[in-house]
Write a structure and sequence with these properties.
Blueprint lengths: L1 E5 L4 E4 L14 E7 H11 L3 H8 L10 E2 L4 E7 L8 E7 L3 E8 L4 H12 L6 H12 L3 H21 L5 H34 L10 H64 L14 H22 L4
Parallel strand pairs: 3-7
Antiparallel strand pairs: 1-2, 1-3, 4-5, 5-6, 6-7
Helix pairs in contact: 1-2, 3-4, 4-7, 5-7, 6-7, 7-8
């Protein structure tokens, strides 16, 4: 449990929650980072809604906006997936008139606490709740622009592999596309969730912010919206990559069918000749001719060469 007490000129760090009676007098803003168990201990002192505690205890969470606006408190849960390699983080946010709490529901790598500390370090002691919340939300998407740029280069590399037909295997490529598609879907929902939360907080329906504080939240919402649009572009690029791969498979199948068609066209007249001389009629003079067999062989060879020449002339082979 860590609390940061903001006064007019500085802020101090304390390991326990100060007396709520000091809020608004000696303490202008109280910022806390605590676990679900610690939240349940301090919830009665801060008059937090019981249903929000139940949501913090739930194990199943979704990438959807869960902001709840009450008369005295705004509550939201955020499921974080940006970065992807360190696992999913889940946090809850409480905003009151003089209090901002970050609840560590699941922090796989300690990035949430580091982000809150970085946000506090960036803000001046006189900063308001809106600036502090926007600075903290900024840490949740820090470095994501570079991540999306790397994904764009990855997709460009895959597109080059498709065009050069240097893919390792069809099943492996399809699985790679599926993983990228799932990850982009998570990112799209994640940025959409952050954008909706920031926009809803900026609207300040319960008037927990002072004049001018909502501007920082709107700027963050714009940044999250730009990231969301970038993800949408990447999803379209991934769809085009899938279409290009399918087109490559179709061309490969057409080439195979073309080969079979050419072979069928060559053997069709040969089958006619063989069938013609396989009738074994008594009156057929070639049956008793000494050079009948070599003549049929030469005839078949000549037909084959003529067919090949015609196909090459029309660039069919």
């Amino acid at each position: 449990m860590i609390f940061y007490c903001f006064s007019e000129k500085n802020h101090t760090v304390t390991g326990d929650m100060p007396d709520p009676a000091l809020l608004g007098r000696e303490i202008r803003l109280l910022v806390g980072m605590l676990t679900v168990e610690e939240l349940e201990a301090v919830a009665p002192r801060l008059s937090l809604p019981p249903d929000t505690l139940r949501q913090c205890r739930e194990e199943v969470r979704y990438f959807r906006n869960s902001l709840e606006v009450g008369e005295q408190v705004s509550f939201a849960t955020v499921k974080r997936t940006a970065g992807g390699e360190t696992g999913e983080d889940c946090i809850a946010l409480y905003l009151q008139k003089s209090c901002f709490l970050v609840v560590d529901i699941r922090d796989s790598d300690g990035s949430v606490q580091r982000g809150l500390e970085a946000a506090i370090g960036r803000c001046q002691p006189s900063a308001g709740k809106g600036q502090l919340i926007a600075a903290f939300l900024d840490t949740l998407i820090e470095g994501d622009a570079r991540l999306l740029e790397e994904l764009e280069f990855t997709f460009s590399g895959l597109e080059e592999e498709v065009l050069r037909d240097t893919l390792g295997g069809e099943d492996d490529f399809i699985i790679r596309l599926l993983h990228h598609k799932q990850y982009l879907l998570l990112l799209h929902n994640y940025y959409g969730q952050l954008c909706e939360i920031a926009t809803s907080l900026a609207e300040d329906e319960n008037r927990l912010l002072v004049r001018g504080e909502a501007r920082a939240l709107r700027r963050f919402a714009d940044r999250a919206e730009r990231l969301s649009r970038t993800v949408s572009t990447l999803r379209e690029q991934l769809g085009q990559l899938r279409e290009a791969y399918q087109s490559m498979l179709d061309q490969r199948m057409n080439a195979i069918m073309k080969t079979f068609t050419v072979l069928s066209a060559i053997f069709l007249p040969l089958s006619l000749i063989v069938g013609w001389y396989g009738m074994n009629f008594t009156a057929m003079p070639e049956l008793h001719w000494r050079f009948g067999y070599p003549m049929v062989v030469l005839l078949c060879a000549a037909v084959t060469l003529i067919c090949i020449k015609i196909f090459k002339k029309h660039h069919w082979i």
